[in-house]
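Morning F.,

Quick status update on the modeling queue. The single chain you submitted on Monday has been processed. Sequence for confirmation:
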Amino acid sequence: MNKSAKMEQLEVLRVELEIFKQQHRDLDEAIHALEERGTGDLLTIRRLKKQKLALKDKIARIEDRILPDIIA
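Structure tokens below.
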């Protein structure tokens, strides 16, 4: 893979990372709103929390690809 393609791939990963982080924040706000108002049923809140955890895993994987651990 040439340097230009690698830079393009990193840019795509950064954009995906920002999208997933925004979705994670949105889910967090939705969960807090449902819990505070008491209007959400437990099943809905649990489903949203699972989605939030899945996004957290995706975020961690992308961050690892952008900044891999370097053993010194």
